[in-house]
Amino acid sequence: MYVANSGHNSVTVINGAAVSSEVQLWDSGAAYGIAVDETRDTVYVATVQSHRIVAIGWLNGQPDQFLSWASFQRGYNPNRAIPLRAIAVNPARGPVFDGGHLWATTSTGDGSEVNQALFIPKGWASRFHVPLPHNLDVQPTEGIAVDRVHNRVYFTSGVTPGTVTVIGDHDNICPDIAPASVTNSVDDEIGMEVYSVAEVVRSDVNEDGIIDIFDLVYVAARYDSADTTADLNEDGTVDIFDLVIVANHYDQRLPGVGE
C-alpha cells in the first residue's frame, strides 16, 4: 500500500501491517493522488504544489525508489504551472515499453487556469508524453476510475449537482470525446520537463552532485575515445550524443543536493 504524505514530500510504503519504507520525493511538494501500474511495477504520484507526476519503482535492484518526475506547464511557460491532484493508470493500453496510459486532473481550485482531465498516452517507461487536455466541470479534484474491460475513464466533478464525464481510452491515443470539450489553442498547449535520477547520475561524471560545465568539459576532453565514464549512451564511442545527454541535464542536481 502506498500513502501520500502531502506535508512531508514523501510516500509511505506499507507491507501488510508494518511500514516498509518511506520514499522521499525531495522538491516535489504536496503529493496527493497515487496510481499503481502493477504491469510494470511503477507507482505514479500526482503533486499539487510542484505540478509534477513522480515515478517510483525499481532502481539499482531495489524496489520503491524515486525514479523521475515530469512537470507540466501551459503554453510552455514555467509561470503557468498545471497543479495535479487525482491520477489513474490504464496499464493495458499501449506497448509494454510505453508505460501505459496515464490520466490526471487539474483544477482551478488548486490554481490551475482550467478544470481539465489530462490524457498522457505514455508513462515513465517511455519518458512520458505531452498531455492532451480535455475540459471538465468545476472541482475535478477527487475521483478518477478506469474501466479496464471496456477502456473507459470516469471523472467526477461539479458541486450541486455533481457530474461524471466518461472518456474512451484506446491504443490509437485519440480519446472518444466531444470536440467542443477539447482545448485546441496553441497558447494552451502543454509543455513538459522530465527529470530522471538515473540519467542525472550518469551525467554527473565528476560526481559532485550537480550537472555543470565541469561535466561537459570532462566528456568533451574524451571525445572520440572509448572512455566508459564519458560514454553515457554506452555505444562504445564518446561523441556528440554523449555531450547532448549532459547538456539536457545541465544545472540539474541529484536528489538531496542543495542549491
Structural description of this entry:
The chain has 259 residues and is mainly β. It has 2 domains: 2-195, YVTN repeat-like/Quinoprotein amine dehydrogenase (Methylamine Dehydrogenase, Chain H, 7 Propeller), CATH 2.130.10.10; 204-248, Type 1 dockerin domain (Orthogonal Bundle). The protein has 3 helices and 15 strands. The strands form 4 sheets. It has a 5-stranded antiparallel sheet. A 4-stranded antiparallel sheet has the order 8-9-10-11, with no helix packed on it. A 3-stranded antiparallel sheet has the order 1-2-3, with no helix packed on it. A hairpin with a 4-residue loop joins strand 4 and strand 5. Helix 2 runs antiparallel to helix 3. It is globular, with a radius of gyration of 19 Å. It starts with a strand and ends in an 11-residue tail after the last helix. The model is unreliable at 177-183 (pLDDT under 50).
